[in-house]
Amino acid sequence: MKTMKNILLIPLLALSFLTIHCSGSDDDVPNNEPEVPVQTKHFHPPLWIQGTWHTTETPTTRLKFTQDDVISLNDNSSLNDQINKSKTTNLIWAVEDEAASNTHYNYTLTFRSVGGGPYADNKFKVQKINDTLMLRAPDFAYLIYYVKEKD
């Protein structure tokens, strides 16, 4: 009988030891929600991409790269303006992972909800083919070519 009490007592002590040492804090639980990004004031497109470009498939789809902005000429919207306007809303726009070289220009336009809700990333990656032609990295199932317009 004494052995039976000891057999029951050992698991009970182990369970109470674990319970005492458990923390009620969730600080150690990883948060899978991305952080609201730090906003970048301006883009920094390289010199070779600065100017107006249109796609070969839809010549009316036009982008203008300046030394510190990217502007959609379809609706005359500046990405810097959109980033600045978002500072007063719950959906923050930011430029992340911007990288430029003599042949490539990449950035990620990120949209994050201040309250931790939905988010999205729009990656823009282009490769210079020559002075008047660039290729956007595969966008879904096809490649997009841009032709530089004469100023």
TrEMBL record:
UniProt keywords (A-Z) are: Signal
Q: Which domain of life is it from?
A: Bacteria
Q: Which range is the signal sequence, renumbered to this chain?
A: 1-24
What this protein is called in its record is Lipocalin-like domain-containing protein
